Amino acid sequence: MNWFLDMCIVISYASDSGDIKSEKSKEFVNNKKDNKFFLCCYITQENMPKWIKRQEAILKIVGKKIQDSSCEIEKLKEYQELFAKDIIILRKRLAQSSASQNKSEFYNKLKKNHDLMIQRINYFMSKLIDKEVIPIKEIKFELKSALFTFLQNHSDAMTLASGIQYAQEEELKILTGDKHDWNKNNLEWVFSSRQDIAKKYAKIPEIIYIQNT
Amino acid sequence: MADKIKKNPEEIRTEILNQLKNGPKTIAEIGEAINSNWLTIEKFLKELKDEGKITEVVSSPKMRVYRRTDDIAFYGLPFSEEIRNKSCSLLFAIANKWKVEKGIIPARTTLQKVAVELVETPGSNLSDIPVLRFHYGQTLAVMYNPLSECAPLKLDNNQQKSLSKLISEYDRKLSAYAKSKQYKKNGMELYKEKEDNISKSFLYFNDENVQKAEQGILRLSMIYPVELKKSFQLFDRLVYCSTNLLNLKNKEDRQQGFNKMREMFSLVWDAITTEYFFYDAEKHIRPEKKELFCQIRDNILNFKLASLISLMEDLESEVNSINPEEIEMPSDKESLEMRELFTEGIEGE
Question: How far is it, in rounded angstroms, from Cα B338 to Cα A111?
């Protein structure tokens, strides 16, 4: 079976945090056998490196705040790299650090867990991916745009467009953890409102949720 | 022109060497100083270089710079004549007094540490002598070479007294004592962490040392000085590799990882402390020598970093090939919560 993977599968696998998605992702990956894993170039070349960079920025900010509690984090250059959702994560990290008895040890632990996670991501990307598909420049604008109109999320639109595009070349299933945005109803809605796209991308891949595997 | 004709080759060679006594110079500077043309200078520079008496420190289309092989300044940096002379003569004064009082000359590391302490002694009136951080902590800008011609600095009574006290304190002590004392100072946190935890842990392999080395390297990343930007990427990659290699589940693999990290750490430490040295040294370089300083610094640092980067890439690729199931993931509650937070909101990525 060919599996087109959403980025959250890789991160859930890498987190090894014991929650259901992480456990299911690990189980799925460890039972790979003859299955083929595809990731789109948008994830490997753009979205994942940027996500990692933002996690590093959060880590650096936490480190600076621990070293100097009077540090105004909003003025740090790393802070400017963060999205609104990252700032929420940062606040939570800072709250975790405030609650810890030994802040320096907290940072060491955070850095260690971060580095171990990054190793798992790197391993996944270099050893478990059978094919990187759809060069970013070849993502069809009309498809991406139609998906974006509905999803209102650039990354989701780029990834899903790559998956649908590649499904026209090779049979595959899409694996994600995102039940909210990536679902059959949404895709049907997009395609029913754009007959030209529906015709061009006739093979709509099945979407499987990691929670249900 | 008449002067030029009169000089014999040996005289020109001696003049060139004399010109380089106080630091590196460009071909043009040497030519101007000894009143010889470019072709003549070029010919004798080549001879001196082949004989190992001088080396070319910068060779770019814009600038060619030479230094004496026996230049006392570290990396032949273009410190002023005053800095060179005063630093060198202080080292000679300490070595001489030590010999008179105790009958021996101390190890060079100890000699440098005592010199630094004397310079920093309140009221010593020696604060114009630069103190720079280097591989083993703080040192003066020049090395002690008993063969170099240098008159010992004349110390006043106060300085003599302070020096005698220091000699009594440091005599017959290992250089580790001097290092450990110096590392307690402000600005030496990186060295202290390295000396107290990492170096000792890397002496031999056992579970306790593996853990101490890992924790020590992580702590270094917390206190890593922001000014050392050039080495940071390399250091950060070292931390990444050490976290993974020192947590391998299989003991034999872990020991191999430990040995690799020991080697890599000492190479990265060399790069970090070289950058530290240049960072501190830059403050003592005269404006007209800044360009030359930057050329020497970039040549040395870039060479070190470039050769290390390829080694680090190999190590990183090895780390990234390890099946994660072979690496111990921390399973305490706090670690699990930390990692869970990494996954928050990833569906929207």
Answer: 10
